[in-house]
Amino acid sequence: MIVLNEISKRYGRVRANDSIGLTLEPGRIYALVGENGAGKSTLMRILAGHTVPDSGTITVHGQSHSRLTPALAASLGVGMLYQDPLDFPALQVWENFRLGGTSRTRAQVVDKLGELSNHLGVCFLPDEPIASMTVGERQLLELLRLLDLGATTLILDEPTTGITPEQKRNLFGLLTRLAREENHTVVLVTHKLSEALEMADAIFVMRQGRLTARLSTPCGEDELVRLMFGEAVERAGEIPAVASPGNRRLGLEAATFAGPKYHLGPLNLSAAPGEMIGLAGLDGSGQELFLRGLCGLDRLAEGSLLLDGRTFASNDFKTLHKAGVHFVPADRMSQALFPDLSIREHILLAFPGQAGRLEDFRREQCEERFNLRAHPDTPAKSLSGGNQQRLLLSLIPENAPLLLMEHPTRGLDAGSARQVWEHLRERCRTGATLFFFSPDLDEVMEHSHRVLVFYDRMLVADVPRAQATVETLGALMAGKNPEAWNAA
Amino acid sequence: MPRNLWLERILWILAAPLLALALTVLVALPSGAPPLETLRILVLGGLGSMTKFGQVLTVFVPLMLCSAGLLIPFTARLWNIGIEGQVVLGAIFCTGTLMPVDQGGPWHIALALAAGMLGGALWALLAGVLKTWGRVHEIFSGLGLNFVAMGLTIWLIFGPWKRPGVASMSGTAPFDPSLWLDRMGRLASSWTALALACAGLALVAWLLLRTQWGLGLKAVGQNPKAARLFDLSPRRRMLQAFALCGALGGLAGAVQVLGVYHRLLPSISSGYGYTALLVGMMASFRILPVPFICFFFAVLNVGSIQLPLQLNLDSSLSGVIQGLMVLSVFITQGLRSWLIRRREGC
Q1: What pTM, to 2 d.p., does this model score?
Q2: Where are the domains of chain A?
Q3: Which of A24, A152, A198, A255 is the most buried (most CB within 10 A)?
């Protein structure tokens, strides 16, 4: 049994954790839910020994500690599985499995891995390199490694991001077995309420650094939402209709994109002004190359690209950028922003023509249109995720015809995410065409007129909104019966 | 800012020279040198008379040109370690331009200075092209090109440009005095050279702090991937940064030829390129401290000549002190940020 008592942690003026107390019992599954920035991760990092709390105690097996180290936490049986598995892609399965444990020979490691896999009903090839495995498989391996190290309390941080519905079912089945049969404690950190309700025996709700509620399931989703956000979040309304579906904003004709690792194509596709097109696919299925190819970051090897009646035989980034194609990558800080440059400098870089009236222009762009109220001299690295995304959106000219967004709401809380979607819808209502990718299928379905599904570096299906359900898309993402759909 | 914060800041700034002083004493003691006497000789050896001050200025000029130049690639997070070779190439181009001329005037000198800048810029572009198109890190290519430049000088001095009759390490035949830079009275330095150094620093400061180009370069240094998305042509900008830095380095080489030695020598750069890297590091690549550090290093350089004469110490002690200064700055900065992190408790 683990008891957290009066745990507090401040970062500067922010109270990430404000005297939190909770008890974790063996054999039970808990869910820890809350908005981004509610303090879930901080709390779990304290439990896993990665963060030192300012005050409070952690009592494990009757022994009280004021702080844990990762080694101590591991010896007490606490293991944490991160959203991006902390493994080493260059190593093989068995090498990764051995990490952190006692030194053993390859044969011993393989035996142990086989024994655990067999016991839990999964399968690994010891010599397969991690780099060729899916996120779901890597997660399972990481889980096995933690169990091998003697973990009896498993913390999983957003484990279902980037895995197929089927892999999710397997993972949840495994977790349930571990809790029910082996008396392990499982803590699921998530923002997906459906998962919390489906899996957990008890749900902890965090809000602004405080533990606001402990609910026993079953309980109502509405109540949970109210506890998490303070007020019920209204779902965004129906997406705007496409004004003139016959018009052609973008066309691909037998286009093949060549990325650094693989090719994608030939693709045949067209999109109308105002259309919102979601991309679905597991990591590495081709959607990344699709977006990068459309904006000219990766080469158009064959075929042609049509934009507003102009035919491009090559997709030069500069030319497309001038024609109004804008790409916003998912990893904003490492790919799209300059960490030490200020908001003002970003605006100046994106709109050199406005240098004369920079301050007025910035106010119009950032504050009036996007409610980005940070001081103009704030460096980008000090902005919250929501403000970073607002800044990036405000750097796209108003009349840009084609927007390409990789996971537009990554790392954003519900309020910011809604604002981003309202903004994107407004752009599409006024004629922009949007292609976006999100690992969250619900988000893809909610905001798309149609969904392009990628599997194994191919565009396998073009699913209209009406038919886009979790089951259909999930099956297509896993490579099942694509024949039924008119693939490009 | 509250007063005690100012005080703290000043104390931190003072901490670095104090640490350097302590380390210097530690280094000097085993060799039997009286530490305070050594320091006195170093400073007086550089500033003791007007002649010595003139010599300090002749060191100061190329050092400042190189340091100012290095600020540009560093803004794009590029380590132009090849500056040494760019100085040499500047000297070679400058000498080559004046080779066919027996006598000349200001126009010849201007042309030779420009040729020096061109030579440095081209040599820097070589490292730049290797970096942007060949994926060779600029530190490796720069270092390699430095050796090539050295070899090239020696080949020229002993080969095509050798003095009639004798080829020796003492360099090519001296130029006619009409091709020399002007002198400050009887001092070794030249007004033109000093003016060029100041103009170089001013140009760099203006480019980096006041222009859209400088902002773009900073952006490229911060995040080349994002720079691509902002359509800032990172490659072109990096090449321009290399070329500008090389041009300033080449100018330093040309000043060495026209103002100091009046011919091409095997060690024409005197290691100023490497010293300028130290200056840049010590200034953390900010503009304001650069002229002061350059001047200080120049005093040390000139003063160290007195060490073997008066104390029977090797003159390389000044290099040791310069190195210790830079290390001290790093140590105090590291200590300070460590303390700040600890205070904030992360």
Answers
A1: 0.78
A2: 2-229, 250-324+397-484
A3: A255
Across the interface, whether the CB atoms of B231 and A317 are under 8 A apart is answered yes
Start-to-end C-alpha separation, chain A:
55
Q: Tell me the CATH number of domain A2-229, given options 3.40.50.300, 3.10.180.10, 1.10.760.10, 3.90.1640.10.
A: 3.40.50.300
Token pair belonging to A22: 């909770």
Cross-chain residue pair A349–B346, CB shorter than 8 Å: no
Q: CB–CB of A349 and B222 under 8 A?
A: no
Burial code of A416-446, b = ≥16 C-beta within 10 A, e = fewer?
Answer: bbbbbbebbbebbeebbbbbbbbbbbebbbb
Q: Looking at the complex, report in whole angstroms how far the Cα of residue A237 sits from the nearest Cα belonging to chain B.
A: 32
CA-to-CA distance for A112 and A157, rounded, in angstroms?
Answer: 26
pLDDT in tens, A79-108: 998 877 888 888 889 888 888 778 888 899
**Inter-residue contact B200 to B64 (CB < 8 Å):** yes
pLDDT for residue A222: 73
CATH architecture of B50-304: Orthogonal Bundle (1.10)
Q: Is A264 left (phi over 0), alpha (psi -120 to 50) or beta?
A: beta
- CA angle B66/B69/B75 to nearest 5° reads 135
Q: Which CATH architecture has domain A250-324+397-484?
A: 3-Layer(aba) Sandwich (3.40)
Per the CB < 8 Å rule, is A345 touching B226?
no
Give residue limits of the domains in chain B: 50-304
Interface test with B, best of A50, A338, A395, A404 (most B CBs within 10 A): A338
Percent of chain A with pLDDT over 90: 33
- Residues A296 and A278: their CA atoms lie apart, in Å, by 19
B216 interaction partners in chain A (CB closer than 8 Å): 349
Q: Using a CB-CB distance cutoff of 8 angstroms, which residues of chain B are in contact with residue A341?
A: 215, 218-219, 222
3-class SS string, A252-266? EEEEEEECCCCEEEE
Nearest to A427 by CA among A405, A452, A453: A405
Residue among B75, B135, B223 with most chain A CBs within 10 A, to mutate: B223
Of A188-197, A204-213, B164-173, the range with the highest mean pLDDT is A204-213
Q: How confident is the model at residue A488 (pLDDT cuts 50, 70, 90)?
A: very low
The closest alpha carbon to A350, from A375, A380, A311, belongs to: A380
Pairing label, strands A276-280, A450-455: parallel
List the single residue in A327, A329, A349 with the smallest CB-CB distance to B216.
A349
Q: What is the ipTM of this complex?
A: 0.84
Nearest-neighbour CA in chain B from A350: distance (Å):
6
Interface of B with A (CB under 8 A): 212, 215-216, 218-219, 222-223, 225-233, 344-346
Backbone φ and ψ of A88, nearest 5°: -115, 100
CB pairs A-B closer than 8 Å = 50
Same fold, A2-229 and A250-324+397-484: yes
| Closest Cα in chain B, distance from residue A438 (Å) | 20
How far is C-alpha A184 from the geometric centre of its chain's CA atoms?
27
